[in-house]
Design a protein that fits this description.
five-stranded parallel beta sheet, 20 helices, 44% helix, globular
Length: 467
């Protein structure tokens, strides 16, 4: 039975999630302060952590970093308001497994928790220096062929041609792209099309690793080699032997660990932290970074010689906002996938949603789109997705040309008009209340003393749900 730690200063959220997850046979502990949550995490083992980003005594970024320092393999899910989507993107760069936006939907929370538990590599599946049989055991990671989706646009075809070209080789590959552009999916696809496809694919997030932890995670450690090393442990190079090792956010590796990594690549041998025996490894490396590695070595943050070792081939993954022709095809892909996962029959999007999607900037790229579509499928009651099932903010970003940024009509911009002033005041009040309640439209309607349908009519009146 998996154990979950929830850190949130909202008592109602802790109570709601605790009751719901307990009913689904999880052991749940809660904490209303970041410091209390970290104390509980240090005192007992947890399989997963859910943390609100905005806490009274700290924030989700610091919680994430401290948890990763203590136990890198434990998935952390960040709870945030949709207005903080760029913050969510930042914590994903730092190694969060995923993020969930408020208002929370228990079924969505459960779905992400189950994904995290299914995808993480449990500690007891790693080689621990026990029996010979245990030492020979390797995790097998299967690549889901449906994870990679190729649309029919020129950009998508060009990207897939590069993947097919490089996959059969043993070249190291650098994947460049913003957070959420699908770098790990591309890495898995390269692995699945290679001669190593029947061997392990191991992914490692280098985002928040300290020097000691990075060495242990990459190369393994022997029992007693440092405080807390109560058992011997295989590193990711051992686990990926004969297969592919994907290093995400590789630019964040400590500089001295980069030097050790360079030696391992050159000699194809590793030595566990605290060990004396060298082991030969045969690993194909794919690395990714959301910052340009060439710029990083020019700034002295990344070793130039290591960059050139990695840079046998590079692929640039464009952000979603630069792939307008792909947007609706990706949306349909995520819609079909979410419908199967949630056992629902949702067939498409209405025209209003399509306009919103095409005009939104997608700061979280494909990951953000996946989350939005999955959430919409979960909330939707019919067979077509309507704007009501989307987060309010994504329609808010691009307003109709009939209105300016204050909500008053452009064709009647006379500030002395009583009607115009009243409409502007109404617009500003709705916008302020929505922000106050984290864009929970039900709560906003209650505070505004109108029903939910009237609120939606007002949003449409000001074209806030239209592109």
């Amino acid at each position: 039975m998996a154990s979950i730690l929830i850190i949130d200063d909202d008592v109602e959220i802790c109570l709601l999630l605790s009751r719901y997850l307990t009913k689904h046979t999880y052991n749940v502990e809660t904490a209303q302060r970041g410091a209390t949550g970290l104390e509980k995490f240090a005192a007992q083992p947890f399989d997963i952590v859910l943390s609100d980003f905005r806490l009274g005594d700290t924030d989700g970024r610091q919680i994430l970093q401290k948890i990763k320092q203590l136990k890198a393999h434990v998935p952390v899910i960040i709870i945030t308001g949709y207005s903080d989507i760029k913050v969510a993107v930042d914590v994903m760069k730092l190694g969060a497994f995923d993020y969930i936006t408020k208002p929370l939907i228990p079924e969505e929370v459960l779905n992400i928790i189950e994904k995290a538990l299914n995808q993480k590599l449990p500690a007891d599946r790693q080689k621990t220096g026990g029996s010979k049989e245990q030492q020979q055991e390797k995790p097998r990671t299967e690549t889901n062929e449906e994870e990679y989706f190729k649309s029919n646009s020129g950009e998508s075809n060009a990207l897939y041609r590069q993947i097919k070209l490089i996959a059969p080789t043993n070249y190291s590959v650098i994947l460049n792209g913003e957070s959420g552009t699908g770098k790990e999916v591309v890495a898995r696809t390269i692995h699945s099309l290679s001669s190593r496809s029947n061997e392990p694919f191991i992914a490692m997030d280098c985002g928040t690793l300290t020097r000691e932890l990075a060495g242990s995670e990459l190369f393994g450690h022997e029992k007693g080699s440092f405080t807390g090393a109560v058992l011997s442990k295989a590193g990711h190079f051992e686990l990926a032997d004969k297969g592919t090792l994907f290093l995400d956010e590789v630019a964040n590796l400590p500089y001295d660990v980069q030097a050790t990594l360079l030696r391992v690549i050159q000699e194809r041998k590793i030595r566990r932290v605290g060990g004396v025996k060298e082991m030969e490894v045969d690993v194909r490396l794919i690395v990714a970074s959301n910052e340009n590695l060439q710029d990083a070595f020019k700034r002295g943050k990344f070793r130039e010689d290591l960059y050139h070792r990695f840079n046998e081939f590079s692929i640039d993954l464009p952000p979603l906002r630069m792939r307008k022709k792909d947007i609706m095809e990706f949306a349909e892909f995520f819609l079909n996938k979410a419908s199967r996962e949630l056992n629902k029959s949702v067939e498409g999007f209405d025209d209003e949603v399509k306009k919103i999607f095409l005009n939104y900037s997608w700061p979280g790229n494909l990951r953000e789109m996946r989350n939005i579509v999955r959430r919409a499928v979960l909330l939707n009651e019919g067979n077509v997705i309507h704007a009501q099932s989307l987060p309010f903010e994504i329609g808010f970003e691009n307003q109709s040309s009939d209105y300016n940024s204050t909500g008053s009509e452009k064709k009647n911009n006379d500030k002395t008009s009583l009607k115009s002033a009243a409409r502007e005041a109404e617009y500003e009040t709705i916008k302020r209340i929505l922000k106050q309640v984290n864009y929970n439209k039900t709560k906003a309607a209650e505070i505004l003393n109108i029903d939910r349908k009237t609120l939606y009519n007002k949003l449409r009146e000001y074209n806030l749900l239209k592109s």
